[in-house]
Amino acid sequence: MENLRAAFNQVKVLKENDYGSHGEYVGLDVKAMRTTRDEDCYKHLENSLNIFKALEEKVERFDYDFQRKCVENRDFEALEMYVMNLLMGLV
Known about the structure:
Distance between the termini: 22 Å
Helix content: 55-70%
Strand content: under 5%
Radius of gyration: 16 Å
Number of strands: 0
Order of helices and strands: HHHH
Number of helices: 4
């Protein structure tokens, strides 16, 4: 994942809209690095799935009350810092 914040947003939208509740699943568009050994060819897929699962856990911990207050107060910097701290494991 090149942009962790954008990836978090995508997972958040999926979770908020109950994606997967009817058997849907996320397809990861991943491929092994060009010089990867054959025995390691699935590591990138495993890593991508682990990142997705970690982002799901972050979304489950997301404080929607805090988000609502920030939006009401137009304090988007506080909201952005909250999300970044959440992603870095600081909250």
